[in-house]
Input
Amino acid sequence: MHGEDIFPKCRGGGKGLLKENDIELLASALVCWDEANIGMSRNEAIALVMELARAKTHFDHLVHKKQLIDVKNFGRAVKAQATATNGTQIVIDQQLRWHTCIEEALEFQKRVILPAEECEKVQDCFLGNLDETCLMANADGSACVTASQAKKKTQKNTDDSRTSIASPQIGMASGDQGPFAFLANGSRVDRPGIAKWLKERCPAGSQVAMPPSAHMTDKACLALVPQFAQGIRSMQVIKDHPDWWMTVTCDGFSSHVVDKASELFAKHKIQIVKEEGNTSQVNQSHDQNVAKKDKCCMRANLELIRCKLGKKVDHWSLVALAIDAQLKVSKADWQGSHAHVNTQPSTRVGFKEWIKRLDD
Output
């Protein structure tokens, strides 16, 4: 059965009609149905094609009128980030284990902090999330632009630098931002301006480390923790209670939870709670509003400097841009991120209610 026989004008690609690729897919489907002994008659096949054409027309109408309110970009295609299938395996057992760990950590804090009534008032200040963002001068070579009809080939001047840095940071459920850390290439901080910014503009304890790969490793983690932990203990409210324990959550990346690093944190009365792998999308507060705003501000900053520098963007430029981007993260961003994953003590709901929200 040929496409023209099923639905005339399909190959013309008229509005609301099926295109040639659609006809080929339909033909393959008809073959499969026939091989399964549930083949269609000619009239049934024609009716199916007509239904598909009407469905496409109606879908285009809904997208044009922006009526698909629960779909990103109202139904228009968006660029998807690559992930693995195990990144979506969020099950009740896993959530029970994770939120049991959070509850045990909060119960421990209440048990060792006296008086308990005072702890209840400021409990959001004593639970935070630690994670890192990878920032690249040119994440990929693709760029979408509004192009001229007169040009045969569309091009865009972009920086060809592949320099990247990693930036671990912490934020509390109260919205307070903790120290920044930046992992860059090199052997020492040879930019006085960067050292000045870290001291004057960034939260206490902010620093630059220089592992060979510019990414988080066990060695880099151990180098960062002492100053990082001191910076956390110097945050607002926390510094007024030096004997109170606090909790910091982190993802399943192995270098975040090196035993020696956990011991160093514990010396500053900071207990580390680690999530299971591939569960960050519903467990990590940083991966909610904060990471999105980080990357959005970073992209905007990069667009401003690419043409003006007249040279490749180096890692020190990235550090400066990252500092500016992370300082734009607001208190409400961290609060909303923690509330979104149910790790804000003041708004935390019970497990049954949380599972219902995830299910919905």
Remarks:
- The chain is about 45% helix and 10% strand.
- Residues 3-75 form one domain.
- The longest strand covers residues 127-136.
